[in-house]
Amino acid sequence: MTAAVDDKLWSAIGDPIRRRLLDLLLAEGFGTPTSLSDCLPISRQAVTKHLGVLDRAGLVHATPMGRERRYEVDEAQLSRAVGQLKAVGDTWDSRLNRIKRLAEQIQRQRHD
After folding, report:
1. CA distance 12 to 52
2. Which of 13, 32, 54, 84 could potentially form a cystine with 60 if both were Cys, beta carbons 3.0 to 4.6 Å apart?
3. Residue 64: CA atoms inside 13 Å, Cβ hemisphere, count?
4. Per-residue pLDDT of the chain (112 residues; tens, 9 = 90+)
């Protein structure tokens, strides 16, 4: 694997609400806890808590905007996550191909 997997990053992305928040932020370009909570079945306070997790993982950045904070996705960190996911996928593809080759070898030996 070319890049080490960042457990904090993947723990943040692992939650379905946080993935939905990332989707909303990517679609709209930015959002506040109030505007985001209008799109989700959770309270503004719960949205703020989830955004805090995403912020600590570096996936979003907040900018003060009056009494609220405006959140945007950190595209560099999201790209890093995509790169890690690709690396994990490549590793598993390689492992599964090896298992397939071993199974085919065993099958051939049984028929010989």
Report:
1. 10
2. 54
3. 2
4. 444 667 888 899 999 999 999 999 999 999 999 999 999 999 999 999 999 999 999 999 999 999 999 999 999 999 988 888 888 888 898 999 899 999 899 988 988 7
Radius of gyration of the chain (CA): 20
The pair of three-digit structure tokens given for residue 21, joined into one six-digit string: 């928040």
Kindly report the pTM of this predicted structure. 0.76
Cβ proximity of 50 and 15 under 8 Å: yes
Whose CA is closest to 79, among 15, 11, 24, 26? 26
Q: Are strands 68-73 and 60-65 parallel, antiparallel or unpaired?
A: antiparallel
Q: How far apart are CA 21 and CA 31, in angstroms?
A: 9
Question: Would you say how long the chain is, in residues?
Answer: 112
CB 100 within 8 A of CB 89: no
Judge whether 95 and 8 are in contact, CB under 8 Å. Answer: no
